[in-house]
Amino acid sequence: MNILELSEQEIIRRNSLNELRAMGIDPYPAAEYVTNAFSTDIKAEFKDDEEPRQVSVAGRIMSRRVMGKASFVELQDSKGRIQVYITRDDICPGEDKELYNSVFKRLLDLGDFVGIEGFVFRTQMGEISIHAKKLTVLAKSIKPLPIVKYKDGVAYDSFEDPELRYRQRYVDLVVNEGIKETFEKRATVVRTLRNALDEAGYTEVETPILQSIAGGASARPFITHHNSLDIDLYLRIATELYLKRLIVGGFEGVYEIGKNFRNEGMDRTHNPEFTCMELYVQYKDYNWMMSFTEKLLERICIAVNGSTETFVDGKTISFKAPYRRLPILDAIKEKTGYDVLGKDTLSFIVSILPRIGQLIMSSISSLAVNLFVMIFALYFMLIGGKKMEAYINDILPFNETNTREVIHEINMIVRSNAIGIPLLAIIQGGIAMIGYLIFGAPNVLLLGFLTCFATIIPMVGTALVWFPVAAYLAISGDWFHAIGLAAYGAIVVSQSDNLIRFILQKKMADTHPLITIFGVVIGLPLFGFMGVIFGPLLLSLFFLFVNMFKKEYLDLRNNLPSR
Q: What does the pLDDT look like over 467-479, one tens digit per residue?
């Protein structure tokens, strides 16, 4: 590291490190340092009338007051802080006073780890302290700690920046009191939870973290690749599926306390990596689970807080079992005053049921009538072709050539639709079945059959089938196949309708694709389902008549000799 990148304090501390080594003092000794006491235990067990207790402690220097030959140090170990009284002559009984004058006063800094051996006493100010007889350097701190001062239980210059606290949690633990308590409480929660489940006779297991499917919950997974197997795997989003397999295998009850991973947002209360406990037990129902959970939470609360009550945001919350059980409808009534099952609601539902039934029946009947009329019209247009030709020949005020051209155009459009509509339905249904098969949809044959019929329905068409199937896959947690099917349906299935229609109309009726597009767009609002036939037919005849007018009148007039 470039020395220019270091702060002034870091440079001074590195120089002190080098001086310690030059004096023959290892700033990072590997040897064991034996301790026999903790700060909290020393304070709790101290008695003035007993012989001074000999102790050996270790921790960080968090503050110090140097007063010539004597100094006071605040030492922080893993459980708390305690004051240490250090004198030059006590730690340097011989002629060599370098340990105090140079090492302690000049080369040691706040944050350094030291070992202290001495006896416990009470100062004139009444504070329980350690009188040091020996000082050992255990570790030199290169980076300075944030200075947090406490007076009468109040913190000054506190380390509160959330960004720094959560990115440097180790610093947060060192300088802020009460942070370690959170970790200790969590450990108590997990320990109590595990003990309770073990006592109930249930088996703790470990299930795979890398899974071939992202199942057990509806969430976006983290994806990784297994090189040896050459397959994609997912970090589990839930432990559920493998735990249920163990129940099927014969376990009475199984549980797992493990990590789940969900590649979704992140905020103060939402971590993509989180610990979850799942429990599965044979032959139980939700009532048993509620009772068991109540007792479990009560036990955990007692273990963590010493009682069944705790304080959150100034409110007292009791975890004493049993809890109040409130059905959802009763909860709605209690919080809103509205009775979902009341007379008003039931009367409203009864009143609208006939209208809903009429709407459904009218929609079904309208669809059936439209389909029947379209098929009926196509049938009679085909079988009654000769009579229709004769009728058209009688009413059209055109010469024989133009009349034949009009009749030919009508016949081609009708025949192409009569053959093309069923053929289009079959082809589009087959294309949809390929997608259903690729993306793991259930009942592929049934869905393909329904898609064939859906092609006839204007505007929405095949989306009436493939979109609900994609939504079902998404709800089931299979997001990969859901998104794939949705994209396949929107791009391939839906667009194939236009492409196939263009090809059929061009091959069977020699109709320009744009006539088919605009004919259907214009025909649907005017004729409903029949617009699929009559729209392109009318538009094609319109352009035919325009062309006839051009040939018969405009071109003829332009070819007349000028006078």
A: 888 888 887 777 7
